[in-house]
Structure formats: C-alpha cells, structure tokens
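To close the section, here is one more complete example, presented without commentary so you can practise reading it yourself. The ligand is magnesium ion.
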Amino acid sequence: ADARRCGERVGVWTTGMAAVKPWELELHAQLRSAIERDELELHYQPMRDATTGRTVGVEALMRWRHPTRGLLPPGSFLPMAERSSLIVELTWWELDEALRQCARWRAEGIPVAVSANLSPRLLVVDELPQVVAERLAAYALPPDILTLEITENALVSQPARAAAMLSELRVSGVKLSMDDFGTGYNSMEILKALTFDEIKIDRSFVADAQGSLPDVAIVRSVVDLGHRLGVRVVGEGIEDEPSERILTELGCDLLQGFAFSPPLPAQDLTPLLTDTTRRDTHHRAVSAASV
Ligand code: C2E
Ligand code: MG
Ligand code: MG
Ligand code: MG
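Output:
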C-alpha cells in the first residue's frame, strides 16, 4: 500500500505497480531531483578515424554523481528511468548538455561531432524532432553535427511509429547510428527497412576478433555490408593495440575504446581533443617509428 501511494505520487509508471520495488521508487525519486541538483554528468569518449588517427567525434555517455553512492554508470539508473516518463526529461537534459558542450569545443577550435544515445522510449515521443531542432538552433549547430545512436532492439515494440520518427529525424539532417549491431534478433530486417548513416559493431565481436575466426568473419561481413549500404562502420570497445590493428585491417572506418581513451568529463578530454582533432596522429606515429 505504501509503494502504491508512493507510485501514485510519482504518477508516471508505465508498468504494473507490482513490478516496482520500494528501492526503485526511492532511487527514482532521487533521480528526479538529480537534474535540479545538477548531479548528472555526460562523459565523452573519442571516436577516431581508423586511417588518419584523427578524432572526428565523441560519444556522450551519462553518469550520475550520486550524493552517497558515488559515480553511477547508466546501466544502474537508466533502465529504471526508462520505465517511467522520467527518461523523457533525462533525454532533454542529455541533448541540451551534449550540444552545449559540442558548441563550446567548436568555439575553442576543436571540430568534433557529437553522438548521443537515444532510449527506445523516445521513438514514440512526438516532440523529439522539435526538441532536437530547437537545441541545435540554440547553439547554432548544423544538424549533421549530431548523431543519434539507437540500439536495434529499440525498434521492436512499435516498429511503424519508431520508423516514422527515425525518418523524420533523418530528413531534418541528423545522423542515425545503429548501436550494438549484431546483438538483436532482426538486424537485417531493420537495416532493410530503415536508413542509417552508421553501424556500431557490438563490442562482444570486437573483443573476441583477435583470437576467434567466427568473430573475424562476422566483423569482416558487417564492414562489407555497411560499405555496400554506404554506411560508415564503427568498431567499439577497442581495448588494446592488437584490436586496433585488426579492426583497422578489417576496414572499420572509426574506432572507439579504452585503447584511445575511456569516457571522460569534458574538461579532462579537451587536451586530448586539442591534440587529436587537428593532427594526423598515425602519420606522426609512423614517422616517429621510422626514424
Ligand atoms: P553504448 O552506447 O554501447 O556505449 C558503450 C559502452 O561501452 C559505454 O558504457 C562505454 O563506457 C563502454 N566502453 C567504451 N569503450 C570500452 C572498452 O574499450 N571496453 C569496454 N569493456 N567498454 C567500453 P556505459 O557508459 O556504461 O554505457 C552503457 C550503455 O548505456 C550505453 O551503451 C548506452 O546504451 C547507454 N547509455 C549511456 N549513456 C546514455 C544516455 O545518455 N542516454 C541513453 N538513453 N542511454 C545511454
Ligand atoms: Mg552508444
Ligand atoms: Mg554500443
Ligand atoms: Mg550498449
């Protein structure tokens, strides 16, 4: 009864109350005030061009600096937010923050694009394209500076509405990325039905590509498929130099992972971006090695 009262006060749960645990209600209430209390952060991870080594974009990844639990990863609070309309508020915050930072970097002469993850829930929120357009305009950014990353499983629940939303976004000039490619049930169907600008190969394939023939074959095929569709292919979860070399050899266009940088707060990433967005880091490495 207590949980029910609490739930009514929150008033936004989309799933059966019976499934909501008391600790979730508490965390949910805390998360709701996290925006006002300025406890949310975006950390940014560079995405580099595999050929030139240049950083061309950053992916924004959400963190919650919880007052008692420390820095929480998105997996520990976003799923809960996604069960209520709170995810909508979090997304508006995320888009605003990511674009504001992108504009700040560009003003400092750092020409990075920004990728933001989009919860599946947002694909049925009709205001999304308008909010995206407004935020881009607010920071005087061109739409193609923003890539929205969507996991393929996002498209399962209301495929027609989600598809309409994605094409509206794409027509507006925003780029679309299919995240965690290869982990869903109907990757090929989705690729057939929708137009993406980018495919991110799930890191489970990337991590094993060094030692395993199936993974190498899968990565090679995804790269080939992507290129035939005119889509750029990103290898994520690149943790070391051998992975970097293999994924580059297999033809990935962009690489992302701990090998280059973990996700970092904007101010900590700025020096690295200053260094790697302007210079051709591979050429530098090669000429240093050949001396
Ligand atoms: P994702 O979009 O696939 O993001 C990549 C995840 O892999 C991130 O985890 C990142 O920190 C981690 N990662 C990056 N490089 C490496 C590496 O070399 N090795 C390993 N093992 N991991 C690496 P994170 O930040 O915990 O995010 C998890 C997921 O949460 C994301 O997966 C994304 O689906 C979601 N997410 C993150 N931020 C947001 C957000 O602002 N909004 C929404 N809707 N979802 C978000
Ligand atoms: Mg992502
Ligand atoms: Mg991913
Ligand atoms: Mg993921």
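Once you have examined the tokens, check your reading against these statements. The beta strands are 40-49, 55-66, 70-72, 113-117, 146-151, 175-181, 198-201, 232-236, 254-256, 264-265. The mean pLDDT is 88.
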